[in-house]
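Chapter summary example.
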Amino acid sequence: MNTYTSKFLPVEIEKFKSIFKKENAVFSFPQYMHFQARGNGFTASFYTSGKLVIQGNKTSEIVSKYFEPVQNQLFNTCEVQAQSSIEGEIAPYPHIGIDESGKGDFFGPLVIAGVLLDEDGAKILQKAGVCDSKKMNDKKILELQDLIKEVSTCDIIAISPAKYNELYSKFKNLNKLLAWGHSTVLENILSKKPCEIAISDKFADEKVIQSALKERGKNIRLIQQTKAESDTAVAAASVLARGEFVKRISKLASEYEINLPKGASNLVLEQGKKFMTKYGKEEFKNIAKLHFKTFSDITGALSR
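The structure predicted for these 304 residues follows.
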């Protein structure tokens, strides 16, 4: 056997590290891996997906010594540890969840929130009905914000339309802007309380995120996963972000005395035309995201 491949729940990295430390392995941490261990006659790569690959002429010896006799035990240990947290979570607690709101909305700000939860806090929020904000109405979202802030260490950054347009002209890319926002929230939370794991929805290549991380963030294990809102900490962050977005877009609508619908639908297009008629093209920078096609549709339609 020159190659061994199996999949494990990536909740206990240290368990797997300890196996290869016994074989005097040298560790490195390449992209997309929790670690890579190189020893005499073998290389073991433990990927962020949970896949473990062992290669080399010593593979059979390593597997028979550490894996085959305890294969079921290793799997059961991972499963028990995952369940000893709470059902459906991506990683053991405590960990940070990060999410954003407003990136698909023409009107209003971009809001990014982070929530650091321990297991007790996660259980309280699950019992209260915290889930992905896209599955909740605005009333329920606003009701839950105080509870989330009470049981967690959190941070919210709201990027006004004017600031968003300034940053977008600098980054020239939404994913880079999001990465900057996520890393800023992460750094702010870590300045309040230490944590080893953070989870966010996957929105860009890992290199984009890693390059944006600041001093404290570079030392944390960052998990990017699709549909990360299934995790309570990420769901709580989505609720905080959406709640802040709702409050701020409502304030903008009140200031300009015009309805500002969410999203980027035909209704948004129609309201945009009304806004331009009333306030002119230049004022859009203070209420909307100018790189959206909606903006060119509005201004192009009214300039003809």
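To summarize the output: Strands lie at 3-7, 26-28, 33-39, 42-47, 51-55, 95-101, 110-117, 153-159, 197-201, 221-225.
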